[in-house]
Amino acid sequence: QVQLVESGGGSVQDEGSLRLSCAASGYNISRRCVGWFRQGLGKEREGVAIDCDGNPLYSNSVKGRFTISRDNAKNSFYLQMNSLKPEDTDMYYCAAQGGKRVHSLWPDSYTYWGQGTHVSVSS
What we know:
Elements: E1 3-7, E2 10-13, E3 18-25, E4 33-39, E5 46-52, E6 56-58, E7 66-71, E8 76-81, E9 90-96, E10 112-113, E11 117-122
Parallel strand pairs: 2-11
Antiparallel strand pairs: 1-3, 3-8, 4-5, 4-9, 5-6, 7-8, 9-10, 9-11
């Protein structure tokens, strides 16, 4: 059974930093596309950052501020979020692809999802 578990969310002030972690079990992230997504109440889920084995892709809204990384030996991946803004406040989800590798921020490309962790940025 595939399980993705996020950690690291919380509350910070404007321009603060947070690091999200996603630990995978029952699934080997090596050579797979994994990513981070966010969703606010009443909004569609949005791709934030994805990585296909060392080839990252970022949404325009976070480019230059967020960095996705992975540690295949620990079967984990991360999202370093710097210069956080109030508009970054959302539920953040980690995800992994189950089938064909698609280098995309499109949520429907991802099969497995974590339970979410909340990030709140205050002004």
